[in-house]
Automatic annotation (TrEMBL):
<protein>
    <recommendedName>
        <fullName>Probable nitronate monooxygenase</fullName>
    </recommendedName>
</protein>
<dbReference type="InterPro" id="IPR013785">
    <property type="entry name" value="Aldolase_TIM"/>
</dbReference>
<dbReference type="Pfam" id="PF03060">
    <property type="entry name" value="NMO"/>
</dbReference>
<dbReference type="GO" id="GO:0018580">
    <property type="term" value="F:nitronate monooxygenase activity"/>
</dbReference>
<comment type="function">
    <text>Nitronate monooxygenase that uses molecular oxygen to catalyze the oxidative denitrification of alkyl nitronates. Acts on propionate 3-nitronate (P3N), the presumed physiological substrate. Probably functions in the detoxification of P3N, a metabolic poison produced by plants and fungi as a defense mechanism.</text>
</comment>
<keyword id="KW-0285">Flavoprotein</keyword>
<dbReference type="InterPro" id="IPR004136">
    <property type="entry name" value="NMO"/>
</dbReference>
<keyword id="KW-0560">Oxidoreductase</keyword>
<keyword id="KW-0288">FMN</keyword>
<dbReference type="GO" id="GO:0051213">
    <property type="term" value="F:dioxygenase activity"/>
</dbReference>
<keyword id="KW-0223">Dioxygenase</keyword>
Length: 322
């Protein structure tokens, strides 16, 4: 494959790979490591911290500012900040995140959520580069985002870790569907853990990949060692659907939630319970496996060891390395 494509040109990076904006388990060290290795690191929600904020959006903003400055001390390469995008108007935390990022001269944004014309246009009016990921990807949403100014679309398959699409369309189906619907480049995401997944994504028409779970099991990821080992030793067949929105490796809380969901408990009530337990903080970051959920994609059988972000990128991007 040629090293020069639209993703690398738009983002100013060496390889067409973007690290997913995962809540709690990204920090300056990890983001910089991905960017320094030729990909694009993305600072996710609560990046760099291990306790929930108590001071509202102001505290969240200052935390973000501090972590952005740490990233800049570790790399001079492009990196992005995650931005939650609600369907209408704005969200006070999204507004604060965007304002702080602009103040710190951040140019790249991974917006996750719904198509929001006002927010997309505001990002573009400030000369930002927007990678848009609709939580449940649709042709209509991709076309709208493109029309409003998005630079790159992230097409998410049901195979992914994190917030699962509600249309239950797998990566192999959604990627070519979105590719055919838009004229801007598409990043594929969902179950891409080795070079075979990368090659498949390109065969489907994607021009790059957006990778989360594989980067959790990296040396630089702040996730607990217990969490990384849990992912290594778990199999796809072990995974539990704890709600319509999330899956987890099987531990105490996950088993309880899976039983509740299987017995008819509405997903929004289960998600509320997960939030009350700290969301992804206890299980993913702190390694308290029985007290949280471990959210991963369905291809975890392919992850067998902890490696550096550079090694992971070189393995996934081997076809682009001359």
């Amino acid at each position: 494959m040629e090293n020069n494509n639209r993703i690398t040109s738009i983002l100013g990076i060496k390889y067409p790979i973007v690290q997913a904006a995962m809540s709690w388990i990204t920090d300056a060290k990890m983001v910089a490591a991905v960017s320094n290795a030729g990909g694009m690191g993305v600072l996710g929600p609560h990046g760099g911290y291990n306790v929930a904020p108590s001071g509202g959006p102001t505290e969240v903003g200052e935390r973000l500012r501090n972590e952005i400055r740490k990233i800049k001390e570790l790399t001079d390469k492009p990196f992005a900040v995650n931005l939650y995008m609600p369907k209408e108007d704005s969200n006070i935390y999204s507004k604060t995140t965007f304002e702080v990022a602009l103040e710190e001269d951040v140019k790249y944004f991974v917006a996750v959520g719904e198509v929001n014309k006002t927010m997309i246009e505001e990002i573009k009016n400030h000369n930002g580069i927007l990678l848009f990921r609709e939580l449940t990807p649709t042709v209509e949403g991709a076309k709208m985002a493109e029309g409003y100014g998005a630079d790159i679309i992230i097409a998410t398959g049901y195979d992914e870790g994190g917030w699962i699409p509600q249309n239950r369309i797998g990566t192999f189906s959604i990627v070519p569907t979105i590719v055919d619907a838009v004229n801007i480049p598409v990043l594929a995401t969902g179950g891409i853990n080795d070079i075979r997944g990368v090659r498949a994504a390109f065969a489907l028409g994607a021009e790059g990949v957006y990778v989360g779970t594989r980067f959790i099991v990296s040396e630089e990821c702040p996730a607990a060692d217990a969490t990384k080992q849990d992912i290594i030793h778990s199999k796809a067949a072990d995974l539990l659907l704890v709600s319509s929105l999330q899956r987890s490796t099987p531990h105490k809380l996950a088993r309880e939630l899976e039983a509740m969901y299987r017995n008819g408990e509405p997903s929004h009530k289960i998600e509320k319970k997960i939030g009350e337990q700290g969301g992804l903080l206890p299980g993913m970051l702190l390694g308290k496996l029985d007290e949280g959920i471990i959210s991963v994609n369905t291809a975890i059988d392919l992850i067998t060891e902890v490696k550096s972000c550079k090694e992971i990128i070189h393995e996934l991007m081997a076809d682009f390395i001359k």
